[in-house]
Amino acid sequence: MEVESNKIKGSGNNYNCQRRVGLIYDERMCSHCAPDGEPHPENPNRIKAIWNKLQNSNISQRCVMLNAKAVEDKLIQAVHSKNHNNLIRNISSKVYASRRNRIASKLNSIYFNEGSSEAAYLAAGSVVEAAEKVAKGELDSAFAIVRPPGHHAEENEAMGFCLFNNVAIATSFLLNERPELGIKKILIVDWDVHHGNGTQKTFWQDPRVLFFSVHRHEFGSFYPANDDGFYTMIGEGPGSGYNINVPWENGRCGDADYLAVWDHILVPVVEEFNPDMIIISAGFDAAVGDPLGGCRVTPYGYSVMLKKLMDFAQGKIVLALEGGYNLESIANSSLACVEVLLENKPIRGSSEAYPFESTWRVIQEVRQKLGVFWPSLADELPTKLTNQNAPHILISSSDSKSEDEGAKLFVSADLVSAVEDVVTSLSNLKVEDQTASTFVPWRSDVSKIDIWYATYGSNMSRSRLLCYIEGGKVEGMKKPCSGSMDGHPPKEILWRTFSHRLLFGRESTHTWGPGGIAFLHPKRDNQCKTHMCLYRITLEQFNDILLQENVSNYDMSSPLFDVDALNSISNKGSISVEAVKEGWYHNVLYLGKEREMPILTMTCPLSVIESFKSGELPLRPPCKEYANILVKGLVEGNQLTEEVAKAYIEEAATEPF
Ligand code: Q9C
Ligand code: ZN
Fold first, then answer.
1. Which of 107, 161, 226 to mutate to test the pocket of ligand 1 (most atoms within 8 A of CB)?
2. N or C, which end of the chain has less CB nearby within 10 Å?
3. Where's the Histone deacetylase domain (predicted)?
4. Separation in Å, CA 448 to CA 399, 494, 548
């Protein structure tokens, strides 16, 4: 292929030995922004920050600049409906001005302004342009610094800050419009922290496109919050096996987690698939410091992930920016990626030692599900490997003194070396300001304060409570827990009764499936006597349990329930924890003191009780598995006989208001 020198102007002449890397950036993509100056994470500063970083570190000067251009409607309509195409084409015109905000408000996480149409056309067109140049061999690889992002956009729907699906449009362009370029199989790697639902749907039945997405999922509670991103979604018909989802069970995933997925899922599959080209939906919202992602991938991590992919498709790789909302993080991550493209080796650095236990579980689930399509995934991983886990205990709790060392997650030698690994690797990293999210200072403040955590539901069973501390699940639970940072078991267990009513409500839960779950009425009622199991745990552990009881995207960079809250709750009686107020158990209730230590429980707010009362929310008895574990707790705690415990639960579940 010949280089069209009038279009490609680069100053890379001093660096002849380097690879030809294309870059696209165009100011016009900055004119799409939230109306009325409203702050929004998906804002023009994102691509400006990346562009400035590449310029200031003299990296853009070593690349080939490409011109952004608007995508043609014909290419859009290979992915989107005519209706959707028309909407985005016209949304910025004057005639739409009065309706723009109303239309946006009906969509999921979308805004429009006068600049949206042009930016959307340029974003998609730029990825097409970059992909064509790389496919032709005029460039080795390219990075399209575009916005709005694309991977959430579906055939007939803008969502999740995405208007057109840029990567899907470029992929379908190469396969359907440029057969002469010989690109017959394309791998799409979506490492944005969110699931690429739009891209998945576009190629659901298409075996020419292997779509791979690794994302936070949390059993359908992380955006876009449904089951589309689960590992069971493998494509359909001829596309079966050509859709691979790696759904994280929890946040805080970092280099070790991602690289384990690369080594044990992605790379073996790509060896077999042997793509002609790779397009990366390169969101940087899994980066350390991202406000939406809550993960911890470092620039070094991204550089290794990218380098591993460069060994395929003759290095023909296009990166298209998706999400990423911490300006510094996305600039540093982008810089690392472009350096790898130029030099074909990872940047200097190192990573944390081990993946989470949950990461190995997810990897094994994916391998099992896809082993029939990709033989290299079929073998079981050695336990020697999968037993190497990141400690749940990090710095803060390593010196806390526990009477019961027997049930600790890690023998102390392992812990010491694991902590040392983490410390060493962090000190080797070149990135600034990424320690904050790993060494969370609030944790050491609360790791030495003990409280009584009073439980009235399934946590009355010790094995169930331990799921919140050590991670994992007990029988009947559909969803495992991620555990606490401090993995020490409770220091003491006591039983007491309290004059608050026990009730059961809700249709179903992620954890237990159909049926109600236990709530404690926040107000005293002297007629009632509810059995409660009190665990002496640290205030740090209480915070981690509070988070797990109220599944949310909160990243724990500050405590949910801090020392001030603890000091004031005896006066207030209860505190609603705003950061997790979407959760059912965000209301922390003070029940008194035991040996000078406060007794706390968590339940719903009074308003929810009112909704149960009025019938607006269903009161429902618990499912069999859930009832069984309540009974188990009461029996093992020597509080009631099995028969009496069953009757006790039954009565609480059927008693009307
Ligand atoms: N509770 C990309 O990263 N969050 N999109 C909405 C509503 C939307 C992210 C939260 C996140 C969209 C490209
Ligand atoms: Zn994202």
1. 161
2. N
3. 40-340
4. 10, 20, 21
